[in-house]
């Protein structure tokens, strides 16, 4: 009698799979916006394009992209003006559905709008950042403000990133400093990820974790080089932002770059909307969470100071008691994502943590 059909001793087949979507072309440097036509030709995405920009960013770079592509492509434009974010996204989706691919030219809000519209219409997306304010320029996630606070959504990762350092360096330094703070906060994001792995059994990606840590170290160690309106600074920060976005794509989530410091930032946005940029609040949160992890919180604070990023709630116009409330409310933000702020912080301890921010 044959034993071929008995399954008890059947050899187990390795069936784990992973789908990572990474940019095919990444171009960073002076004047590289002029290479947009060559990038589009190389990628062969189609003959019609939607250029998403904002009112100001269209003047800064959007019109130039339109001009460069108009001879070879059917160019259509969408200007994302201030208004209800979800309605803006719906309008952008309707416009994206009529073209072959999408280019986002602008800062974080514009890039996120273009990424979501591309994702929901199954269109390729090219990222053309005009400021290096956060790591969304190369990631597969997008942040959308709602009445309940910012939510993180799956979005189309860019098939190409074209980052002109001349354009980025001309943006207000506060935006660049915010991007630096967002990257330096990766330090505590990966500590939270490792903590969740040890306490909750959450799966980690060693590759994504290592890349995220290395990216944070680059800015941490080179904080002295980050100066206002210099292309060298824009180059360093933009490369780090792209690297952080790639780490998220490898992980398949924002875990390598988003931990308790991001939950604090989102809680603060709910309690004090419009106060401080996203990266600025993440930087302040990183000082606090690094202290809780027993790490070099003073080193993070000093690096943030060197680059010109805020290190206290007062510097972004938030009173200390609101910051305390944000620390306590952080556990209600994405409760499925375990961080050190989910371990039972008391009000008294939260007040002490905020006071610590002002110590020398």
List the helices and strands and how they pair.
Layout: E1 25-29, H1 36-43, E2 48-53, H2 55-69, E3 74-79, H3 85-96, E4 101-106, H4 108-121, E5 124-129, E6 141-146, E7 149-154, E8 160-164, H5 165-169, H6 173-184, H7 186-200, H8 206-221, H9 231-251, H10 260-271, H11 278-292, H12 297-307, H13 320-329, H14 347-356
Parallel strand pairs: 1-8, 2-3, 2-4, 4-5, 5-8
Antiparallel strand pairs: 6-7
Q: What's the level 1 CATH class of the largest domain? A: Mainly Alpha
What is the CATH superfamily of the largest domain? Dehydroquinate synthase-like - alpha domain
Number of domains: 2
CATH topology-level fold name of the largest domain? Dehydroquinate synthase-like, alpha domain
Q: Provide a count of the helices.
A: 14
Count of beta strands: 8
Let me know the largest β-sheet. Answer: 6 strands, parallel
Distance from N terminus to C terminus (CA atoms, Å) equals 81 Å
Q: Would you tell me the structural class of the helices and strands? A: alpha/beta
- Major sheet strand order: 1-8-5-4-2-3
Poorly predicted regions are 6-10
Question: So what's the oligomer here?
Answer: single chain
- Architecture of the largest domain, according to CATH? Up-down Bundle
Rounded mean pLDDT score: 90
Rg over CA atoms? 21 Å
Coarse morphology: globular
* Percentage of residues in helical conformation: 40-55%
Strand content: 5-15%
The H-and-E topology, N to C, reads as EHEHEHEHEEEEHHHHHHHHHH
Would you give an account of this structure?
- The chain has 14 helices and eight strands.
- The chain has two domains: 25-171, Rossmann fold; 174-356, Dehydroquinate synthase-like - alpha domain (Dehydroquinate synthase-like, alpha domain), CATH 1.20.1090.
- The chain is of the alpha/beta class.
- The chain has a six-stranded parallel β-sheet, with helices on both faces.
- The longest helix is centred in the C-terminal third of the chain and has 21 residues, at 231-251.
- The chain starts with 24 loop residues before the first strand and ends with a helix.
- 49% of the residues lie in helices and 13% in strands.
- The radius of gyration is 21 Å and the shape is globular.
């Amino acid at each position: 009698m044959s034993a071929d059909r008995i399954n008890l001793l059947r050899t187990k087949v390795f069936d784990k799979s992973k789908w990572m979507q990474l940019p095919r072309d990444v171009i960073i440097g002076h004047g590289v916006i002029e290479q947009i036509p060559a990038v589009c030709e190389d990628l062969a995405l189609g003959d019609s394009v939607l250029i998403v920009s904002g009112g100001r960013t269209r003047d800064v770079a959007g019109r130039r992209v339109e001009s460069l592509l108009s001879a070879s492509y059917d160019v259509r434009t969408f200007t994302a003006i201030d208004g209800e974010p979800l309605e803006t996204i719906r309008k952008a989706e309707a416009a994206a559905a009529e073209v072959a691919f999408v280019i986002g030219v602008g800062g974080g809000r514009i890039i996120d709008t273009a990424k979501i519209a591309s994702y929901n219409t199954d269109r390729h997306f090219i990222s053309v950042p005009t400021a290096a304010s956060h790591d969304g320029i190369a990631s597969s996630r997008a942040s959308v403000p709602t009445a309940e606070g910012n939510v993180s959504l799956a979005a189309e990762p860019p098939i190409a990133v074209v980052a002109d350092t001349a354009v980025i360096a001309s943006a207000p330094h506060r935006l660049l400093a915010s991007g630096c703070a967002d990257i330096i906060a990766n330090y505590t994001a990966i500590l939270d990820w490792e903590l969740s792995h040890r306490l909750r059994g959450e799966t980690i990606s060693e590759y994504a974790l290592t890349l995220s840590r290395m990216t944070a170290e680059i800015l941490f160690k080179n904080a002295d080089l980050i100066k206002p309106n210099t292309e060298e600074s824009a180059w360093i920060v933009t490369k780090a932002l792209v690297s952080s976005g790639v780490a998220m794509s490898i992980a398949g989530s924002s875990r390598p770059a988003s931990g308790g410091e991001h939950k604090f930032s989102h809680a603060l946005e709910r309690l004090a909307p419009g106060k401080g940029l996203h990266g600025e609040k993440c930087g302040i949160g990183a000082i606090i969470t690094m202290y809780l992890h027993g790490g070099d919180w003073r080193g993070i604070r000093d690096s943030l100071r060197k680059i010109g990023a805020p290190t206290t709630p007062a510097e972004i116009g938030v009173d200390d008691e609101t910051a305390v409330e944000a620390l306590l409310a952080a556990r209600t933000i994405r409760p499925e994502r375990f961080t050190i702020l989910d371990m039972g912080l008391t009000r008294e301890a939260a007040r002490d943590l905020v006071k610590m921010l002002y110590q020398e």
